[in-house]
Specification:
Number of helices: 8
Radius of gyration: 20 Å
Structural class: mainly alpha
Largest sheet: none
Distance between the termini: 75 Å
Number of domains: 1
Shape: globular
Strand content: under 5%
Number of strands: 0
Order of helices and strands: HHHHHHHH
Length: about 230
């Protein structure tokens, strides 16, 4: 009886440890989101907690149709093969166009009427981090290939591309639509996804992230200071 009890307790502890490890891993997925949200709220006086909350919610809501469309789309006969053309279509259509399009649409939930370009862009970046964090959890659960790279970079590329898409949405609200940030977001996201799944050229996905950050900064400064000044 003591031996049976020993093994029963051991099995319970092993299962408990696995559960705690899984919960810890899931919790880590949300660390970038929470850190960035705290940093923005502390340093940006015009960013409101309500905008941050709606950014979180819009990120989660965007993930639902994105995941649904991608789940069924990859089962289509003309996408269910590993040819170069199919990989490009998946990267640029399913990952780039669909994800950035739905992220942009969900940004309409973020309160914007009194938001300047800085606070709205920050909220858009947080939306991207939120979506990337939830997506990382999906990667953990499903055991996605190349998970280490995706866990470390997926939330970042989502945040940067959301920032670009956010600039498009904000300028549309202001009746001075700039389409180039959105197009850049779609292309950058597609390039990232294409190379993130590569075993040989994965490092190009890191370069893509750096490029996205540079373009976000460029478009942001161009929209914030159209006259070329550096004033607030």
């Amino acid at each position: 009886m003591k031996v049976y009890h020993f093994f029963l307790v051991g099995a319970y502890r092993l299962q408990y440890d696995k559960s705690m490890s899984a919960l810890s891993a899931i919790g880590i997925c949300f660390v970038p989101l929470l850190v960035m949200a705290a940093l923005f709220l502390l340093t940006m006086k015009n960013l409101k907690p309500l905008q941050v909350l709606f950014a979180f919610l819009s990120g989660l809501l965007a993930l639902i149709p994105i995941a649904t469309i991608q789940y069924y789309a990859v089962k289509l006969p003309f996408l269910d093969t590993n040819t170069l053309l199919n990989m490009v279509l998946v990267a640029f259509v399913l990952n780039g166009f669909i994800e950035e399009g739905l992220k942009s649409a969900s940004m309409l939930l973020i309160p914007w009427k009194k938001a300047d370009v800085s606070s709205f862009t920050a909220a858009a970046i947080l939306q991207g981090f939120a979506l990337g964090s939830f997506e990382a959890v999906i990667y953990l659960i499903t055991g996605t290939q190349d998970i280490s790279l995706r866990l470390a970079t997926a939330a970042v590329i989502h945040a940067l591309c959301a920032g670009l898409s956010g600039l498009f949405i904000w300028t549309a609200h202001q009746k001075q639509t700039r389409i180039r940030p959105l197009i850049t977001a779609i292309l950058v996201h597609g390039i990232y996804n294409y190379f993130a799944g590569s075993t040989q050229f994965w490092w190009l996905s890191i370069i893509t992230i750096l490029y996205a950050a540079i373009r976000l900064r460029f478009f942001y400064m161009q929209i914030k200071n159209p006259d070329g000044t550096d004033s607030d």
